[in-house]
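Table S4 entry, Metallo-beta-lactamase family protein.
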Amino acid sequence: MLQIKSFTFNPFSENTYILYDETKEALIIDPGCYEKQEKGVLYDFIAKEELTPVKIINTHCHIDHVLGNAFVKKTYKIPLWFHAEEEAILKAVSTYAPNYGFAQYQETNVDHFLKEGEIIKFGNTELIPIWVPGHSPGHLVLFHKKSKQCIAGDTLFQGSIGRTDLPGGDHATLLNAIKEKLFTLPDDVVIYPGHGPSTTIGYEKLNNPFVGKNAVN
């Protein structure tokens, strides 16, 4: 049975997720831990639950979602996976990280480029990557079909959507991708976003001011 543990890290209040099942194998999604205390929180949870991390997955590679990549990769000796179109986004982080107060940011390299529909396996669990561009060019959403749970990164939030004014972003592309990719999922699918509280597909289809039933764009 899939378990999802969330942490809120760094000044951007980014949601980092650990996904694991009864085998104790785990994925670490978007590690945003930067300060020593944040890294300790993540490490202590993994130790307490006796988990074995096997992969890092970045839904996308903006700074707030990758600050802990190097720490996690070094600590657990595990590979980093994300979509090919995010590589340039990741490489750019080191050039602007000091401007945001992250002078100790450590760069790391990708080990595998994920493609839409390529099954991500860990333990007895399988996730389906769904390409939802617009916030960033290679943004992936990770869907667990059996439990109807979705790690959505910065695509769809409770009552909002991801910003599209960063390099590689496009507002119309994101709106279309949400409607064509995410809104075709069942209404009771739970969305775990990159920031803020969880929501459901059904709630956002009715109420989201950007892509919901009464949205005016």
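The chain has one domain: 3-207.
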